Amino acid sequence: MTTGEKIAALRKEKGITQEELAERLNVVRQTVSRWEMDAAFPETEKLIKLSRILECSIDFLLSGEIQQDCEKEARISARDCFRFIQECTYCFLATNAGEKPRLRPMGFVYADEKALYLATDTRKGVYEELIKKPYVELASYNLNTRRWIRISGKAKQEESLAVREEMEMLYPMIRQEYVGKEEVYFVIFKIRIEEAVIA
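Request: output the structure for the sequence above.
Response:
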């Protein structure tokens, strides 16, 4: 597998277009196209940026080894999951309620470099379900691209003030929905992603 083939495979795996990758690397789309066709080779600075964006090692991009699995190298980050969900504008959360699964729409989702987060209300059943049985799945479907994402992981209550502030800034309606006169009902769960698939 050539360097160009690896760039193309990892880019597609992450759902990034040539235009988007070019913009992030501050080059024109034709440059990315030439790299992927092995008609040109990225400079060292661009290789470093590519390895960060595509979440693989520079060694992987440069080595001639075929046996390395692109999917393993191209792990989907929490930010990638968040961007995908934002494009869909919604997602569904599946929890365990007793012995039965329960599915519900979930609107307040956020990610930083470390993890994916979701917000809910301590008065809702989902709060109790996440406390008792923390294994969850999130899923979303993009009607325009006809692609979907499925995320599996373990939820744990998050106390970070920075994450709270980011979520309140991103979703101003949180203050109206979850902050009462006498008590704050707003709670954040951090999702430790065990598996994420975009197809």
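The CA atoms of residues 28 and 37 lie 15 Å apart.
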